[in-house]
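thread: overnight batch results

M.L. [08:02]
morning all. the overnight job finished for the chain we discussed friday. pasting input first so we're all looking at the same thing
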Amino acid sequence: MTSLQSPAIDSYSASSHAIGRAVYGKGARIREPVDAMLHEDLDAPPENRHTIRRICQRLLDEHDVHASYSTVRSYVLH
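M.L. [08:03]
and the structure it wrote out:
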């Protein structure tokens, strides 16, 4: 397994996500919308869950927040 094939990226869960933790900078702007998307994913089948790329696109489309892939990935995985 390479560093790009992390099981945490392929399959994350809200239980492993630190919802409600202190976040500063751009992370503070993405916290609520991303947490809402992750909560939506709890009831969705695995093939319909958000990818990091899809979360980035929804942040831009729905919230007018330009968040990089690495910023969103870091937030989701921690």
